[in-house]
Amino acid sequence: MAQRRTDQDVLSKKDNESDNDLSIRDPVNDDSTTHSSDQILVLHPAPRARGWQRLLCSPFTIASLTLFFTLMALLWPGQRPIHPTNYTERTRRVLSSTPLIDGHNDLPLMLRIELHNRIYNGLFDFSKRLLGHTDLKRMRQGMWTIRDTLEQIDVTRRFISEHPRDLKYCDTATCVRKAFKSGHIASMIGIEGGHQVGSSIATIRQMYELGARYMTLTHNCDNAFATAASTIAADPKRHDEGLTNLGIIAVRYMNRMGMMVDLSHVSHQTMRDVLSVTRAPVIFSHSGAYGVSAHLRNVPNDVLSSLNQNGGIDMVVSVKEFLSIKSPEQASIYDVVDHVLFIAEACGWECVGIGSDFFGAALAPIGLEDVSKFPSLIELLMQQGVTDEQIRMLVGDNILRVWAAVEKRASEIQESGEKPAEEEYEERYWTEGLPGDPHMFRRGS
């Protein structure tokens, strides 16, 4: 478990930190290594040294060159050594080379509730400090995804277009990395709950065409695809029916499209069922570890084990009730650390990511009140011995790897000649047409 501090100042600077050097280094060069040839003794006749050779070989010249290259190593961007306990500078260096991707942020829901999706009326300025968990300045300090079907996809796309200097809409993993390199905040769309597609696989297909790149199979209610965690929590004696027959078809068709299957909000049996039929890695966009907090919204140990084999990812949520079911009012950034470390231990560092659910809950954990506080989370993890490479995996590399794998698998399935799914909800009503319609086929009497 993460060691708690006695005070609440999780943002205080470390004693060894350089307050003057605020530049963002380029860690792409940090991975460079010095290659030295094997030590081999070869005897040759000694040639007579020329004048410039004698100059280069003089002790004074060698000492001067040594000093020069030492200073260059210290001053060249990305090459300055960082003390292992300088967590703030290590965090800056990691985030300067790796995009921090939050798997779930409900900002567009607030646009719907508070503005009725009207973002051009002059009342809304995203560049200024806003209440809640997210605005443009805090996103720049720390780091955002989405909800609510056609109108919300529309307002999300318009919202991104309204901020071209800062935001970039992305529908591929490659686009995210390009956006990050160009200084933009990559912004993606996900659909939270299969009820939003009207129990229709054809509608899932259209949502994908409109830009949604993941769909959570359920939200807080069952639907034609699967059982939700909330319905099991409301009636613990109820049998968990898991994934339906239509849900199996939907999951496998999402694999064919290249749409990520999100298992946050689904029941534990639904998780197990999906992992047994999916043909591509899955995600939990905002869930914790059941082994840390026994809330049904969190992922149990056996599912984490299956997730490791699947190649998927659990993106740790920041909702107090999920972080600490015993004392949610006291849930803090340290509980988030505990969930991250538990998942990494149970599933591997390849399995873990960040999925805050900011704007999806009233109160965020102490110390992680909004998106600007993500660097504080990274520093605390470093204090627990987490390496820079593991941090890179956590903040962005893992989800981008999963996304790319889903895209690759979709291409393979499509190239095999598999047709799009046509199945529909069994209880769907089909219109019969009007008497006298010119039918294509002869109808039975």
Automatic annotation (TrEMBL):
Residues spanning the membrane: 55-76
Any one Pfam family match given in the protein's UniProt record, by short name: Peptidase_M19
Catalytic activity: an L-aminoacyl-L-amino acid + H2O = 2 an L-alpha-amino acid
Cofactor(s) needed: Zn(2+)
Gene3D superfamilies found in the cross-reference section: Metal-dependent hydrolases
Cross-referenced CDD domains: rDP_like
Name of the protein described by the UniProt record: Dipeptidase
